[in-house]
Amino acid sequence: MSLNLTDITLTYPDGGSRLTALDQVTVDVPEGTLTAVVGPSGSGKSSLLAVAATLISPDAGTVTIDGTATTALTRAELTDLRRHKIGIVFQQPNLLPSLTAAEQLQVMAQIDGRKPRTARNRAMELLDAVGLADQAGRRPHQLSGGQRQRVNIARALINDPRVLLVDEPTSALDHERGAAVIDLITRLTRQQATATVLVTHDRTNLNAVDQIAEVHDGRLHLPASARQSTRPGPAHAAQGRAR
């Protein structure tokens, strides 16, 4: 399935008027594809991610996740949708200092109702997928910045989400570690068949993404260069437009 945002408009109070954060944005992200959203600070990138995560309700438009339109869902239903369908990789890992890398994942799986052994097995599978199986017993202070971000990514995937939303994952990393994290997200998107949206300021490591969308003043644009670099394959490239 996929993530679809259709004609999304979002405004915020601004004195006696309202400030438009997103202006009739439409973007489709099929499963197994990665869309990078770039743009200057204040352009609307974070607002787009928050709407996609159902953390903010837009003024108008529709968010559809894995075939479910979220507009009419109750607060409890949205919470359940986020728990089972959406994985969020925050800019800062915010790992619990007292838990090992494996335990960071296990606790999320157990909150979702998995038995301890099942949770442990899934945690180890994902740590292996992000190249940290040998670091499973280490706590955050024993891991590098890049390793902590990998645990953060694995944690977002622990409940097998259909949509993966990633917020500035390389902002605290050097170029080499940042490139490795982007490569990892790209690989996991294919392997886990997620519809992935990556918000980033860094355009230097985006050669393998399916589509690059630029946000300026709340409007989403698809540059010609992004169309030319879209990768062919069985998974359709994501498409975005602003009207």
TrEMBL record:
Residue segments, region Disordered: 223-243
Source domain of life: Bacteria
Gene3D superfamilies found in the cross-reference section: P-loop containing nucleotide triphosphate hydrolases
Keywords, sorted A to Z: ATP-binding, Nucleotide-binding, Transport
Record-level Gene Ontology MF annotations: ATP binding
Keyword Transcription in record: no
CDD domains: ABC_MJ0796_LolCDE_FtsE
One Pfam family recorded for the sequence: ABC_tran
Domain (ABC transporter) ranges: 3-242
PANTHER family, per the entry: ABC TRANSPORTER RELATED (PTHR24220:SF685), IMPORT ATP-BINDING PROTEIN (PTHR24220)
Protein's UniProt name: ABC transport system ATP-binding protein
Organism field: Kribbella orskensis
